[in-house]
Amino acid sequence: MTLRIVLADDHAPFRNCLKTLLDRQPGLSVVTDVGSGHAVVAALQVLGSSLEVDRADVVVLDMDLRDMSGLTAAGHILQMHPDVRILMLSWHDDLPFLRAALELGVLGYMLKDDPLAELVHAVREVAEGRLGVSRRLQHALRIPVVQSPHSAD
After folding, report:
1. How many structural domains are present in the chain?
2. Does residue 146 form part of some domain?
3. pLDDT band at 45 (very low <50, low <70, confident <90, very high)
């Protein structure tokens, strides 16, 4: 089964690069990529109103969108579609941001400079309804560090 990803990041070169990298991973497909909070909310309204086969499995959402915060966008998304699984992507390695995202119902929080293998692992974890948090932040939540089966030792 291919996991369908909606990607929202306002930095177009980063978003395009990440889209390409995720699309190259077995079993992952970026079905929509957008550059704003309003656009991701609108895209999920369209996907949510179409056939079940067209729905997103995971939303990879930038914490710092120009038109609204990622937390605000996540709140709108979860209000419309409580079953949507969101992975926040951020430069912020601060515990308050991580806690705010988790309290909102976001299942994943990765840093933009985390290795690709860890991000892919987190996407898969979030798609399964499990927590996917950056290894660098897991200690802050007292989460046991989980090795990605794809990471180099």
Report:
1. 1
2. no
3. confident
